[in-house]
Amino acid sequence: MASMNVQAWFMGDSDADQRRKHHCNPPEYVDEEYIGKHGIKFWKVNPDDYENDATYNKVRADRGYNYEDEITITKEKLPNYEEKVNWIYYLHLHLDEEIRFCLDGSGYFDFRDFKERWVRMKFTKGLFFVLPAGIYHRFTLDTNNYVKAKRLFVGEPVWTPYNRPADEKPQRATFLESIKHLTED
């Protein structure tokens, strides 16, 4: 993974608009190494020429991603916008990796760290990342209310989110085992 200065921080306890930054007071940033310890992988990719980007094509080939589509989340393009934005903000996990690539706009992916703290990761143009199966996470737009992203899959797309609690899923157990060393430090 190339260093790309991913912006991420622990979230405060505010229940104000989910599209705001929600920093702790004072802000507590986390670095790329901390994010990576949770199995999250990320790369910088040229969003304006990703079809010819060596990193994009290598990651797709190495990880077997053979299906992709594109989604634009904005009031003008997404039917039932508010309902869907609230739906994707609900804490959930997937049985497969979640792979996203930001073509334009921005938003936030939040995940629960090994101590159950919220970490907010800024999703910006050019960020290509993989969340591991079994990690609790959610997504929201930021105050720009616009993101255009690629979604990638191995095989046919599986859209099923399992809302928390879903601790009985084998993928959750596998994820927890992968971060067990963090709880032993």
Automatic annotation (TrEMBL):
One Pfam family, short name: ARD
Cofactor: Fe(2+); Ni(2+)
Binding site for Ni(2+): H92, H94, E98, H137
InterPro entries noted in UniProt: ARD, ARD_euk, RmlC-like_jellyroll, RmlC_Cupin_sf
Organism domain of life: Eukaryota
Catalytic activity: 1,2-dihydroxy-5-(methylsulfanyl)pent-1-en-3-one + O2 = 4-methylsulfanyl-2-oxobutanoate + formate + 2 H(+); 1,2-dihydroxy-5-(methylsulfanyl)pent-1-en-3-one + O2 = 3-(methylsulfanyl)propanoate + CO + formate + 2 H(+)
Recorded topology in the membrane: Peripheral membrane protein
This protein's record includes keyword Nucleus: yes
Alphabetic keyword roster: Amino-acid biosynthesis, Cytoplasm, Dioxygenase, Iron, Metal-binding, Methionine biosynthesis, Nickel, Nucleus, Oxidoreductase
Annotated SUPFAM superfamilies: RmlC-like cupins
Positions with a binding annotation for Fe(2+): H92, H94, E98, H137
Pathway membership: Amino-acid biosynthesis; L-methionine biosynthesis via salvage pathway; L-methionine from S-methyl-5-thio-alpha-D-ribose 1-phosphate: step 5/6
Localization per record: Cell membrane; Cytoplasm; Nucleus
Family stated for the protein in its record: Belongs to the acireductone dioxygenase (ARD) family.
Full protein name: Acireductone dioxygenase
Organism: Strongylocentrotus purpuratus
